[in-house]
Amino acid sequence: MEQIIVAGTDGSPAGTAAVEWAADDASRRGVPLRVVCAVERWPYEIVRFPRPDLPDTLNRAAEKVLAQAEAAALRRRPGLEVTTRVLQGAPAVVLREQAEAAAALVIGSRGLGGFAGAVLGSVSMHVAGHVHRPVVVVRSVPPSVRGEVAVGFDDSPACEPALAYAFEQAALRGAVLRAVYAWQLPAHAFAPEIVYDLDGIRAEQRRVAEGRLRAWRERYPRVQLVEDVRQAHPVEALGEVSGGADLVVVGSHGRGAVGAVLLGSVSRGVLHHARCPVAVVRS
């Protein structure tokens, strides 16, 4: 793994926002930024009417996109080491390959090819579901710093990579870390007469949350931690706190064969509903 942040862009507003977010992150870490643009030729290759100049035309367009992206990154973080690459292939495949060799991948929530009104594009959904590196999906960069990072976690070891990334981000930013542990009572449609000791359950859930965070508190003693244990659906809870956060971090427990399934229902829901950039960290 290289100590480098990779951002993918296609010149769309979300792509530009991803480059700006990545420039900030690379600057905080003191590492270079690589901006890539994927050129997929097949949608334009019409066999009956071939164009010999097609590769050059598409490459020039990609180079223009990258020049604008580099300028945006340097306006935001003057002095940052920025490199650019035009890469051939389907965007999802290219970005997955680039991510595997980087510390993190940053992409826009929806590119130029997305449906109008769509919150999350197919490329960002596919990449976030497959990559074993942190993938940050950016719709827009908040106009001002809010000073808080939020992370969703549960009682399983699979959430540890997400907690690691969230604590690191909070430490780099000097931000408060809000650790959200959302729990729900099981639904017993056929046994409504079951009575729960809610006070006892709340106390037990708080004990579990504190136990999961104890080692991280010791590892990052300077990070101000807010333990947010609440009875709610995780997507609802994280969507609510995203309005006051600079970043929401989620793990992914999905185990299916399709990209959207690999994300898991919670990470997929947060990507759709969060009001700030979201980092998906697969276990």
Automatic annotation (TrEMBL):
Q: Where is the UspA domain?
A: 3-139, 149-282
In terms of Pfam families, this protein maps to:
Usp
Superkingdom of source: Bacteria
InterPro entries attached to this UniProt entry: Rossmann-like_a/b/a_fold, Universal_stress_UspA, UspA
Per the record, the similarity remark reads: Belongs to the universal stress protein A family.
* Protein name, entry field: Universal stress protein
Q: Which organism is it from?
A: Planomonospora alba
